[in-house]
Amino acid sequence: MVQHLRNIRDSIIKTVDWFYFPFLQFIPREVFRYAVTGGLNTLFDLTLYFVFYRFVLDMQIVDLGFIAISAYIAAFMMVFPITFTTGFILAKYVTFNASELRGRIQLFRYGVTVLGAICLNYLFLKIFVEYFGWYATFSKAVTTVIVVMYSYVSQRYFSFKTAQLAVSGKTSD
How does 87-100 read in b/e, with b if 16+ C-beta sit within 10 Å? Predict the structure, then answer.
């Protein structure tokens, strides 16, 4: 089983790196891997969210007896653990695979950075829409750019600590 998982990881890395060649002179491999795996996980998140919201919950309020949850929040709550897990696995085994931190430390730190990203999303959306008066979709786009930069830096320097490895010459290649 472990060998099978390693083969899957190696296949994903080879596939991502095959597309890296045209970007070789512009961005580091780790940044490219982060963009691809993060982009794919985001697409996966949006797809699952759509399916859960439209078809599983049928856009109806979820009444748990002691609390009623709107369908869009319930869909988020159902999808979040799935894409949190896939995001962590892709970051750990594809993007930041040179990290020497223990897995449980990485997972805890990854959770902290994701919590930070959720808070930043809320904060920037609130500021851009309510105080600046920007359109919600434009605000979300600007917020996403900010949060992606935060996420990459915090994961590289905190969650997986691969920045020191790049300086010392140890890389994930």
Answer: bbebbbbbbbbebe
Longest dimension (CA), the chain: 57
CA 72 vs. chain centroid, Å, equals 19
Contact 87, 155 (CB under 8 A): no
Cα(75)–Cα(63) distance, integer angstroms: 13
* Residue type (1 letter), 129: V
The pTM of the full predicted model, rounded to 2 decimals, is 0.80
Kindly report the number of other CB atoms within 10 A of residue 112's CB atom: 13
Calculate the alpha carbon distances from 76 to 50, 131, 166 in Å. 10, 25, 36
> C-alpha distances in angstroms, 6 versus 12, 34, 94, 106, 138?
10, 19, 11, 19, 40
Report the distance separating Cα 74 and Cα 68, nearest Å.
9
Are the CB atoms for 93 and 87 separated by under 8 Å? no
pLDDT means over runs of 10, the chain (173 residues) = 88 92 88 92 90 91 91 87 93 88 92 94 90 88 91 91 59 49
